[in-house]
Every structure is written in structure tokens, then in C-alpha cells.
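Technical note accompanying the year-one report. For the benefit of new consortium partners, we illustrate the data format agreed upon in the data management plan: each record pairs a sequence with a C-alpha cell string. No post-processing was applied to the example shown here.
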Amino acid sequence: MHLNANSGKKVILLRPRGFCAGVVRAIDVVKIALAHYGSPIYVRKEIVHNRHVVNELREQGAVFVDELCQVPEGSRVVFSAHGVSPAVREQARERSLQVVDATCPLVTKVHIEAVKFARQNSTILLIGHRDHEEIDGTFGEAPKNTIIVETESDAATVQVPDPEKVTFLTQTTLSLDETRGIIEILRRRFPGIAGPKSQDICYATENRQLAVKAVAPLCQLLLVVGSQNSSNSKRLVEVCKKSDVPAYLLDDCSFLRDEWFIGVETVSVTAGASAPEHLVQELIEALQRRGYADLEELDIVDEDVRFQLPQELQGGIVWASSIQPAI
């Protein structure tokens, strides 16, 4: 923690924030594919959930599509960081598409766990948001064995064929507290329930939530840079609000509202795992223009995680390289 005692309006900048290793890898996949093969490079869904990132890659030649039927046969397509189901992979084979898989390795871990549990003929209770792309992909690994559990109410009422053969998995971008409550209910109802050897919620999601909890007693307002469809960004807002501190999710500084700052002396700033650092810096500059001239940093934990690029793109380039240094 690096805070000083200066008076006046100030900004507390949280660290870690912004890009995680999986997001860095996914963005690099698209950029390297464009550099190696030229445009167009097709991308199924948003490569990561941030409209600024998507727009930047679109300007460089990436073509974003909702479904593979929009990709010309034989073309090169990138799967997003959120992962895809086996059905999507089969569709790609049927269309002779050249696939570059940018699925986050931590999401791939959950897919592997789903396949393992399904082979054990276990009912998989998949904790997450039904409409999220990551859940679509994981569910698709074992749809006959999987039941999606979104809330504590779902956990309290879900019925399974054999209460003695139950496992659980989670979406990687959930709230730690919310997920803990759901798992506690499932453990009470199914004492023999099994889970992954290590938690599915990713390190970056956890670290950013811990930073928000640490800063909540020190500020009157939290601003989270991230797009509205970013699950991990929305969870940061929710975590802060549970501490009775107002929090808002904004794509960039143009979304600031005057009424948010009434009576506010200290503003905290963080960013979801798919938000670029330049948007954070632009937000800080906008806050300084509003009189929040004192910039301090709250440093919770160091992150030094890198993921290898997909084999299709390695060609001597081993590590993702787009992480932007935090100030």
C-alpha cells in the first residue's frame, strides 16, 4: 500500500488492474495472425469483452462474426478467449476452417474438468451465468451431464439423478463471495460433492476483487473501466456496492456523470481484466480536470503470469507480449 496523508481530492489507483494473461494472449493471437497471414482474419464472437479492443482489431483487419456460418469456407478463424463447445469445433471442421484457438488456458482447464467428471458419470453443477459465452462452451462439453446453477436459489432447489455422484465447476469470472455461498449450499445438500483440485475462478478475477475490498473503506466512489458485457468487470462493481460504496462501470471517461461526484473527496479507479490501460490513464486525466489532482496507488499483489501462444502461431514467439505496465 502506497498512500500519503495529503489533503484534498484524490484518486486511489488500484493494482493489479486491467489486462490479465489470458486477455493479453487472445489479443496477441489476433494481432500476430493478422501480421503473419494478412486480413481478413475472422474472429468468432468478441475476442475479449471490451468494445475498444474489438474496434481497434477491426480497424487492423479482423472481421468479427457471431457464428461460423458467416465465415467463408476454408478461411482462417480465431476462437475467442471465452472458449467454444465441441459442436462449434465440429462446425469448423465441416467448413474446412483454419482454426487458431485463443481460448484462455484457465477456461480450457474447466473444459477438461467437465470432460473428466462426465466420464465418471457424475452430474456436473456448473456455477455461472447462463447467457455468458464461457458457460456455453463449458456446458457443451457434457450437456447430458450438466446443470447450470446461477443463484443460491438454484443451488437450494436443483435436483440430480444420483445425489451420491455430483460435482461442481464454476465460470472463471464470478464473484468470490457469491460463488462461495452457492458452493456452501451445494455442500450442505450433497455432502459428497466433488469439485476441481484448484478453484476455477481465475487469479486475475480474484486479485481485482481483493483490491476493491481493500480500497472500499478508503473512498467514497469506485470507477471500474470495462464494457457492459464484461462479467469480471461487473463483479467488481457488485463487490464494491456490498461495502456500501457507490460504484460504476464505464467504457471510458466519456461516460462520467457530474452527479457521481457530489460530496466525494476520494475516488478509486480500477479496470476489468479486458480493459486497456490507456483507458485508465484517460480516466485519470479526466478526474484531474475535475480537481482530483492527488494520485496515489494501492498495490495489493504482484502479477507475473504469461501464457504460451497457440502452436499455430508460436513460430519462435513463445510468450504473449501486450501487457501494458501499470504506473
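Partners are asked to follow this layout when depositing records. Confidence is low (pLDDT under 50) at residues 1-6, 316-327.
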